[in-house]
Amino acid sequence: MFKILTYFLFIIIFLIKNIYASDSKFLNVSQLLVKNYGWETHEIGPFGQFYTLTLDSKGDSILDLHQIIKRKFGGNKSTKICEIFLIGRKLIIKNEHLIKTNYSQEKAKKARREYVLYGKNLSEKEWMLSDQFNWLTVIAEGTNSSSPTQEIFNKVLTVVDCDNFNVFVKYKNNKIKFPNRILINPEYLFLDMVNVTSKNSGKIKDIFKEMKSLVDKNIKNIKKGSNYLIKVGFWTNSKEKLFFEKLAKSVKPDNLMLAGDICELKGTEVCGKLLVSLDKAEDPNQWLTDLSNMIKQNKK
């Protein structure tokens, strides 16, 4: 019974985050805010005034009207960032405008320096250069390059996760983390349109089948550890059931995969010790996230 519950919880969460139309059209973030999220065109400002990235009263990261726009037009409008970066959504980061406007890092640094040190009133071109510089600095946090012609541009990426501070995308089987500040220049980010209709029925079936297979594989690997704990008398069958229910309610799919991989590669005894630690943890998902980060650090 607990296995069915596990399938149900993971698949429902996955489906909610991943439904989108297969025949989508790419629009930049400014266009999407107007088309999908109820913003008016005049509520999105020019360079330096597009909108504000901030937190709402619940602590969620949002796009809010820029203060200058609020003073000029009034009103309130906000959109949660992770409602834009839906898991499974396609993303293209374009550099066309950078090339067309002959972006120069040297000129951008000069404009920023004159503004900061001497309080110079920047021209619209200089503000644009400053914004472009800031945006490329954010890109570099994910790719280690601030080049306006780097490989990541103009490729179709897939959003695989989003939290309050970062968006994670997949490119060539690599997971890349960009700060949510990548949104500071909405004209350079293009996402596919979200359109939940009956056309998604076939896609839902495919997602369900894929997720069921993934969950089944990882649960099977993790059960090697729980079977070991039962065999040596450390756990009972009822304890195992409670553990898997806890796992299903709290652990995200990527961390479930990590636990499954460890159990598959390290053997039943190590797997058993892992499960005991997860069972004792107040937040098993965070415990696995910390373990994942530690593994990545050790690889460097």
Task: Describe this structure as you would to a colleague.
- The chain contains twelve helices and nine strands.
- It folds into two domains: 112 residues; 167 residues, no CATH class.
- The chain has 300 residues and is an alpha+beta fold.
Helix % is 40-55%
- The proportion of strand residues reads 5-15%
**Widest sheet, order of strands:** 1-9-5-6-7-8
Estimated structural class: alpha+beta
How many strands appear in the DSSP assignment?
Answer: 9
Radius of gyration: 23 Å
Tertiary shape: elongated
Note the total helix count.
12
- What is the typical, i.e. mean, pLDDT? 83
| Parts with pLDDT < 50 across at least 5 consecutive residues | 13-24, 195-204
Taken in chain order, the helices and strands follow as: HEHEEHEHEHHHEEEEHHHHH
Distance between the termini: 42 Å
* Largest sheet report: 6 strands, antiparallel
State the domain count: 2
Compose a concise summary of this entry.
This protein is α+β, with helices and mostly antiparallel strands. 54% of the residues lie in helices and 14% in strands.
Give the secondary structure arrangement, pairings included:
Blueprint: H1 2-18, E1 26-28, H2 29-36, E2 52-55, E3 61-64, H3 67-73, E4 78-80, H4 81-84, E5 90-93, H5 96-100, H6 105-118, H7 124-143, E6 156-162, E7 166-171, E8 174-179, E9 189-192, H8 201-231, H9 237-250, H10 253-266, H11 268-280, H12 284-299
Antiparallel strand pairs: 1-9, 2-3, 3-4, 5-6, 5-9, 6-7, 7-8
Helix pairs in contact: 1-8, 1-9, 6-7, 8-10, 8-11, 10-11, 10-12, 11-12
